[in-house]
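Entry 12.
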Amino acid sequence: MWSVRDEMSFQSGDHGKYETGGRDLREIKSIDILRISVLQYPGRSTDMGKKDEKTNVMRILEQKKIPYNSYNYLSTGAISGVEVAQALGEDPDIVFKTLVTVGKSKEHYVFVIPVEKELNLKKAAKSVGEKSIEMIKQKELLPLTGYVHGGCSPIGMKKQFTTTIDKSAGEHEKIIFSAGKIGYQVEVALDDLEKVVRFQLAEVAE
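Predicted 3D structure (tokens):
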């Protein structure tokens, strides 16, 4: 967060440590300051009113030496994926949600799709070779994955399930998704995500 010391440093002429895009400091909104922090210090959790906290997802990424940006939106009150995208000031097309399903075979599958989209169950089933799939019950999510509704991430589940990411993700350099805890998100390049999660790209969202 922007501190009094930062303000004094900026006024004293130490402008080099901040990326302001040529704008006057007074025109920069809080979300811009959030982005400055993320751009300048990739891999650090951005503080929007709460103490910095590393989630298990962040620790896994760091163990694998994978660069990432993290976002803390706890103080915004955002709940839905679309609200989270708005709180971060990001295009909903690059903010993804993680859904867990079960197939007719009783196998479980993970799908990662843009927050503004819904999972097309027929296309999803076809992508994993199932006759049909359905969403698991919310009460089954925690014991199955270790995550709660609203804080489910494709990284760090109790078991590595077959994972499919909507092919639209391939149009972006990076995507944003849950860091494994409500209020926290991480931004990771697809090429880097592949180092910790085996996944395929397929058209599964609508």
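Annotation: The helical segments are 4-11, 30-40, 56-63, 81-88, 121-127, 138-145, 190-193. The first strand starts at residue 69 and ends at 72.
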